[in-house]
Amino acid sequence: MSDLTRLGAAELADRLAASEISSEEATRAHLERIAAADRDVHAFLHVASERAIETARAVDALRSSGESLGPLAGVPIAIKDVLCTHDMPSTSGSRILEGWVPPYDATVVRRLREAHLIPLGKTNMDEFAMGSSTEHSAFGPTRNPWDLERTPGGSGGGSAAAVAAFEAPLALGSDTGGSIRQPAALTGTVGVKPTYGGVSRYGAIALASSLDQVGPVSRSILDAALLHDVIAGHDPLDSTSIPDVWPSMADAARVGQRDDALRGLRIGVVKEIAGGGDGFQPGVRQRFDETVQLLGAAGAEIVEVSAPSFEYAVAAYYLILPAEASSNLARFDSVRFGLRVPPESGPVTVERVMAATRDAGFGAEVKRRIILGTYALSAGYYDAYYGSAQKVRTLIQRDFQAAFSQAHVLISPAAPTTAFGLGEKVDDPLAMYLNDLTTIPANLAGVPGLALPMGLAPEDGLPVGLQLMAPAREDARLYTVGAAVERLLEGEWGHRLLSRAPRLAQTEMFANEEGAV
Q1: Helix (H, G, I), strand (E, B), or coil: what is residue 104?
Q2: Phi, psi of 174, deg, nearest 5
Q3: Which stretch of DSSP H or E encloses residue 31?
């Protein structure tokens, strides 16, 4: 494995800026890594090798001409297949969009290109982002680089696995109920869900429009912050975009690297999602408790906060999300774009073609949620289900406001368990849904959340994730605190080193690779 694939985005960018390496060299190294590793990991659905090399050469030419380039110019990146790309298929992990190439780029993708990053390809995901394991992809599951018999989490398991397996230093994901943060926790990577409206959703294939948020995936807080700076900002094409002028997240992360960054900080431990209930793995609870003690010893003030409405977050979420999904997925009607399947017999009408297409094109989990959502929105049930869930959402937002009046940031485990086995929960929807119980509240309230590694669980040696949450619009605070926590944990356990040495490097496919761990 090339040493270039071991570099983080910031380190790679520094070497590119100093002309120590070329973007073409960095891009080729990552494409070679994908060719070697992705046969088993299956993080990518599409790899744009030729286009990536052409783009890298163009960036090298611009740099040679003396043109001023952005801080991440020439750095390769993977893109979750939920984001539209005009030159690559955008399937959202579904057969109903198999082979579809959009006529435009998502705003975040356009901003990547303008900042001269190098798109490597599109990453695997649960179909229409519905799932917590990346096993609901129509194109097969992604495997966790730490243990190829386990899931990487979902729905953005492809992006997280690509970064964890050194196939890309950066990736874009989307987070509707934890689909950036939960895979980050299970793969030993960093994942950030920005404030709702802080990053454009234009060109992101919608699941639940009031919950979806695009964000960065990386192997360090600074790398995530640098990518956040590229994709954030107001977008007039997105009606939910916040017209704020955002501070530099990278600058905020660098502040967090100071020795006294945690001194005087009030950190709230959320009682309802702090790992004490049923369903939390003992090793996750142990690492969380140890991390809380470390934060206190480093000068932070630890306060317990209560958010009683969080108890109902999963139930509310699984009424709101299916309701919005059933509305958003109505556009896949076999008429305008995507798959078209004629009925096997009988008259060919729009209704019968639509039924045949949706039956063939949608997977079981998508059908399940469409049925749930349509029922929740139906006459006579709207107020009882969807309306009540929105009231719970308001209570959760108020609980966050009360909690942030007592603490600067809130913390909890990013996931209740480490990575679970492939097939272990795929036939038990309720067990799968509960994997997001710690991350869902942030989506319902629209506040930013960040997941970073906090060591390995003692019972299975797999990564455990810590979640940080900050008030809405305080993404910079999240990066400052996240960088300080990362530095503390790295000094205590060397967690960053551990997150860079997954067991994938010990498997047979890398046995003959130079530099394998």
Answers
A1: coil
A2: -135, 145
A3: helix 23-41
Alpha carbon distances (Å) from 13 to 22, 169, 336, 476: 10, 11, 42, 21
For strand 449-456 and strand 171-174, is the pairing parallel, antiparallel, or unpaired?
unpaired
Active site residues per annotation: 80, 155, 179
Tokens of 105: 């780029």
User: Residue 172: how many CB atoms within 10 A of its CB?
Assistant: 30
Q: Has domain 3-310+394-510 been given CATH number 3.90.1300.10?
A: yes
Are 19 and 113 in contact by the 8 Å Cβ rule? The answer is no
Q: What are 411's two structure tokens?
A: 């913390």
Digit-by-digit pLDDT tens for the chain (517 residues) are 678 999 999 999 999 999 999 999 999 999 999 999 999 999 999 999 999 999 999 999 999 999 999 999 999 999 999 999 999 999 999 999 999 999 999 999 999 999 999 999 999 999 999 999 999 999 999 999 999 999 999 999 999 999 999 999 999 999 999 999 999 999 999 999 999 999 999 999 999 999 999 999 999 999 999 999 999 999 999 999 999 999 999 999 999 999 999 999 999 999 999 876 778 999 999 999 999 999 999 999 999 999 999 999 999 999 999 999 999 999 999 998 899 999 999 999 999 999 999 999 999 999 999 999 999 999 888 889 999 999 999 999 999 999 999 999 999 999 999 999 999 998 888 888 888 999 999 999 999 999 999 999 999 999 999 999 999 999 999 999 999 999 999 887 665 444 444 555 444 334 444 433 2
CA contacts within 13 A on the Cβ side of 174: 37
Helices (H), 203-312: 221-231, 249-255, 282-297
- Tokens coding 464: 């455990």
Round to whole Å and give the CA distance between 280 and 295. Answer: 21
Among residues 286, 297, 242, 162, the alpha carbon closest in space to that of 475 is found at: 242
Q: Which helix (H) or strand (E) holds 276?
A: none
